[in-house]
Amino acid sequence: MPELTPPGAEPILVEHLRAIRAAEQASFHMPGHKGGAGAPPAGLEALGAAAYAADVSELAGFDYLHGASSAIAIAQSRAARLLGASRSWFLVNGATIANIAAIGAAVGDGETILVARGSHRSVYAAIALSGARPVYLPPLRNDRLDGLFGVEAEEVEAALARNRQIHAIHVTSPSYYGFTGPIAEIAQIAAAQGVPLIVDEAHGTHFALHPAFPRPALACGADVVVHSPHKTLGSLTQSSLLHHQGHLIEAARIDSLLQMLQSSSPSALLLLSLDVALHDMAQHGRERWSTALELAARARTGLLERGIPGLSAYGEEIVGTPGISGIDPTKFVVDVHGRWETGHAAARWLREHRRINPEFADLRRLVFSITPGDSPETVDFLLDALAALAEAGDEIVEESRIASLWPEEIPEMAMTPREGSGYASMQVATADAVGRIAAEMIVPYPPGIPLLVAGELISEEVVESMAQLLEAGCRMVGISDPSGATLRCCVDDW
């Protein structure tokens, strides 16, 4: 792994901040707290004086994100070199804005994009905003794990053969579970057709930092890649990265969209946190992730050695099952269905009785993220909590539940997502909504795959699945009535 700055050197934005603060005697510009002098006492107590002192703007001389010419430009260039891109952008509006900018740069009004149906909801927002027409890759049913995961390269190739008008491909890898797809194969297929590949690798920013991880999307040949370093590298929440290489998507177009979509007052705190995290990873990333990998192995081995009844952890044995080409070893995925009715119930018990929050829970699993922020003590604490969790549960023997609750077919698209979300709408009792066109999304978490996208026809299967998933404890996102009693539908005679 390259060492991009001399050992012991400070991150470039830290040096930059120190220089501009030393150059200013008094502030008569924004932000109004004047370096913390006017900050609310409760804010100083909660956040500390250093946070306010670092909250500066371009008016003080801090390099401007939307026209970076000095320190931010250098920091972004170093990020690109570290993670394998031709160009990288620092983002202050999260990976959501990265997906929107990437898709907006790749496709426009009426153009077609091939999209994995198991994508983050920001992808559907991007499709609606771009005016593109989606063609969906259905998630693969994995009977062994009772879930819907990923896509196969053959599905991508077949979709491109069926539809020669596809202008771009968007897939997500890894998933919340740390499961990765066949990105190298998909990139090869896409390149042969001259179609750009966008990969939402938000949960895999760390893949480039250690050879034990799946091969990163940029190294596999993806044209544009989305990263969320706050998920694994230690930057502040909402700080993200977007990377570009090749010529199939115009970098200048991404630049233009980011200037329109992001705040015109970007947070120096978020930019600093990105640079500090990447600087640390450039110098110590392999060492830190070696430790995290050892801790994740300790967790899996500990679960097995303790013989905790009704609980099991996934490992390399699941690679090659439908939708799973690789795994991130630092995602500790524990199946609890042998002791708890749902993963949601198990997660609630851990929060209430052991003050532990998992990264993610579904109807039968808990996902725990192991990072350089963990230690042998935190892993042992987790294993003790899982032993208590198993003891508190009841023996349960059930057949498949997640995949069986999901409709076999993707709903019929009557309008594009832009048309459906922008059409005149009204709330309709769910029982009366069958056959109508949805004006909103229905996204059960988990698994985070839309049952319905705006513009699609509401079927009996969708309504039945929504009711089953709500009863099982899934949270619905995108829906205006979280109870599921009504759905927002397009007005027939508008």
Strand order of the largest sheet: 1-10-9-8-6-2-3
Overall average residue pLDDT? 94
The whole-angstrom Rg is: 23 Å
Structural class based on helices, strands and sheet pairing: alpha+beta
How much of the sequence lies in strands comes to 15-25%
What sort of overall outline do the alpha carbons produce when their principal axes are compared? globular
Report the CATH topology name of the largest domain.
Aspartate Aminotransferase, domain 2
Q: Tell me the helix content.
A: 25-40%
User: Helix tally?
Assistant: 16
Q: What is the distance, rounded to the nearest whole angstrom, between the alpha carbons of the first and last residues?
A: 59 Å
Low-confidence stretches: none
Counted beta strands: 19
The CATH top-level class label of the largest domain: Alpha Beta
Q: How many strands, what sense, and barrel or not for the largest sheet?
A: 7 strands, mixed
Q: What count of structural domains?
A: 3
Write the CATH homologous superfamily of the largest domain.
Type I PLP-dependent aspartate aminotransferase-like (Major domain)
- How does CATH name the architecture of the largest domain? 3-Layer(aba) Sandwich
